[in-house]
Specification:
50% strand, 7-stranded antiparallel beta sheet, 1 helix, mainly beta, 12 strands, NigD-like protein
Length: 200
Amino acid sequence: MFKTVLLILIVIFISCKSENKKNIEYTGRIGIETFRLPGEKHIDSIVEYLKIDGKEYANQIWLVDKDKDTVGGNYFDFFIDDTTKLGNATRLSFTLTKPAIKWDSDIFVVLPFNDRELNDDFSNLLDIKLDTIYSLKDDNIPHPELSELNLPLNRIAEFEIEYGSIGKKIIRGLIVERGTLDGKKYERRLFFNDSLHVTD
């Protein structure tokens, strides 16, 4: 387990620092690179790159075996309905499925108060007003209905949002993972960009 975490961290940091990436296929602002990990006969790494403030950023990483089953990596799941009705509360759920640091890392979600103020490449994220949503473990709300489900509450963040107008709505921000490994504190950021439609 420790070797897997260490490998993921090495891949992340090398990917983030490398200036000359090859074979990255971009669709809009998202690029995907697939390559075989050195010394691993049947493990491929799929890396999602984003253009963040003009630089390539290794966002999510999936490690897959020869059967294309996911066996590791660093990625999240984001659950939201494609469509909602005007005035209805819509639930958003983020789960850090595979953490980069440790399984007991804590997460929180950061969103702009007004998405129209956020640049497409997230370059002004720290210059605008932000909202923070903490994990179910740290949100100071009792969750007795979840106590017996054995869920990783430290890696799940959920909240509801209600829109006052119809149309396409963009949901962008980042998931921040914080944890300690070998006595050192680490932080890993994963960006998300999604949308839903509000109808009347």
